[in-house]
Write a structure and sequence with these properties.
Blueprint (H helix, E strand, L loop, with lengths): L5 H32 L3 H17 L3 H6 L3 H6 L2 H9 L3 E14 L2 E16 L2 E17 L2 E4 L4
Antiparallel strand pairs: 1-2, 2-3, 3-4
């Protein structure tokens, strides 16, 4: 009969224990690195919303248009989009994304907009003001898109 000696048994236990700790350590490293590289939805939305507003302010309409949902872009051409923005009496002069609150695949983004209106009424050359607006963003196919109300 072949019975393992005490020393062989101890070596086998040490080897199994070492493998277990190695597996646990590797698993923890994978988890920690995944957490470190995963950006929360709110942060992603805030940066995309700010980039969209930066493009609008720079009058880079093609870039701004690319942030709109695929459904919007299907029903509104780039030319119509650009015409609609260029024909507004209101001129946006600043935008600062403040916060985003998300539930599943929908986020609400609060943005402070600075704007001006040239000659809003006789005797007033320019009206400058600001307001905070709320915008909706949706996630489709792992990407966040601006989803306008109309």
């Amino acid at each position: 009969m072949n019975v393992p000696s005490e020393r062989q048994h101890q070596t086998s236990l040490n080897s199994a224990s070492h493998r277990l700790w190695l597996i646990i350590s590797c698993s923890l490293m994978v988890l920690v690195s995944a957490c470190a590289t995963t950006k929360p939805a709110g942060d992603t939305i805030k940066s995309r919303a700010q980039a969209r507003w930066d493009a609008v302010l720079a009058r880079d309409y093609e870039t701004a248009y690319a942030f709109y949902s695929p459904g919007y872009r299907t029903s509104h051409s780039l030319e119509d989009f650009e015409t609609q923005l260029r024909s507004r009496r209101v001129r946006w002069v600043g935008a600062n994304v403040l916060e985003a609150s998300c539930e599943a695949d929908i986020c609400s983004v609060e943005t402070r907009l600075d704007y001006k209106i040239n000659k809003p009424v006789p005797g007033v050359p320019v009206w400058k003001s600001s307001e905070t607006i709320s915008e909706r963003w949706v996630r489709l196919d792992r990407q966040w898109w601006f989803f306008p109300e109309k």
